């Protein structure tokens, strides 16, 4: 039987998972988004006339599973709205920080090689169902299965060194998807980047497996347990600050103020798209906004569970500090920093 505190946390994460699923697959897809996706699949063209590329890999059956993601996210990478690109950078750095934290916790609890499949499966499910649903569900499962003992440290130096290497690669990995925001790219290259980035959970797992089988200790004899978390925390915080600074730069172009730009980046709008071509990009942007909001709500409680045992201050003060940090640094950075601080203070 679950302890009352564990039950309350599990209920909270379960409610967030339900809310996240509803927001992603009902609220974000209103105003004709589903019909627009069906129309693009039928005509092989987007509303603005851009062709849909249907081959991304040598495997046709796999390509058919990737088309929906390409249709959904295509409009966010064309550079027409800076708010789209700024949120993409922030969200995907947050996703990679979260993926690394799940990888590290899995390897700490289950150090045998087959356990690498666990974060891989969570990552793939996230690609198809959305972070606002999947990551609260992950925290729910962790809470129910392990209670508050779900956060062990990595005691194997070989695994920890590999995690540091994976953290570095994980920080770079979003560029494989986001490079069209910074480099002029043709339509085919942009769409292939969207499709192939769906394999990022598998890539991260392979990098971790390779790191555990390469003698990294010859280069770095030892690293602290907090090192992998610090790497992804710095990257996620930098991406979040990039989005905020981007909003500040955009505010120099009237009539958009910085406050309005931040609202456009992070908060869903109640207004309907005026142009048919904007329906899909608006839906995808709102989808990612809900991801960030739900992750912030999930991670603030998770971070409190991590820090409460090692910080001799009141719970309300920890949560208030985490809220401020979440706004300033982003949810991914706060989650990773909480892990790093937990292991640093426990040493």
TrEMBL record:
It comes from the Eukaryota. Keywords: Membrane, Transmembrane, Transmembrane helix. The chain crosses the membrane at residues 6-24, 116-139, 159-183, 195-211, 231-252, 292-311, 317-345. The keyword Membrane applies. It comes from Arthroderma otae (strain ATCC MYA-4605 / CBS 113480) (Microsporum canis). This is Uncharacterized protein.
